[in-house]
Amino acid sequence: xxxxxxxxxxxxxxxxxxxxxxxxxxxxxxxxxxxxxxxxxxxxxxxxxxxxxxxxxxxxxxxxxxxxxxxxxxxxxxxxxxxxxxxxxxxxxxxxxxxxxxxxxxxxxxxxxxxxxxxxxxxxxxxxxxxxxxxxxxxxxxxxxxxxxxxxxxxxxxxxxxxxxxxxxxxx
Length: 172
Prior knowledge:
Blueprint: H1 2-33, H2 40-43, H3 62-88, H4 91-96, H5 100-125, H6 147-158
Helix pairs in contact: 3-5
Organism: Pontibacter diazotrophicus
Protein name: NADH-quinone oxidoreductase subunit A
Pfam families: Oxidored_q4
């Protein structure tokens, strides 16, 4: 019996070692064959399509937190629905109580979902779900270089009368 356990653990160990070697070979191969051409665009921070402007230590819009809390509420609701469905949907309990158990479970879940819907309606009525994109605040710096010099560089880079490159994507 001891040989069986040792051989079973040995098999698991061989699979783990094989998996680690497989991953290492894949990572090494990708490092060798991939192009390595970093530029400012690739090295810039990208988060949710917003350009990183200014200092990172700023106050965020409270709507981020409200939307996150609403998401967590409904995520927790789903976590409660699965055990509810397995426990209250047991056929032997429903048959033993002549269907009262099933009706009790159904009414209980409607009350639970109703409370969550009331919370969502409250957040909606208060305007917490309305998303208004704030205008980015461009930091003002004191530079010895005149503003028209920046404009000339932009015109040379992007064309006359344009401050930034044209994109084919619609702006939100």
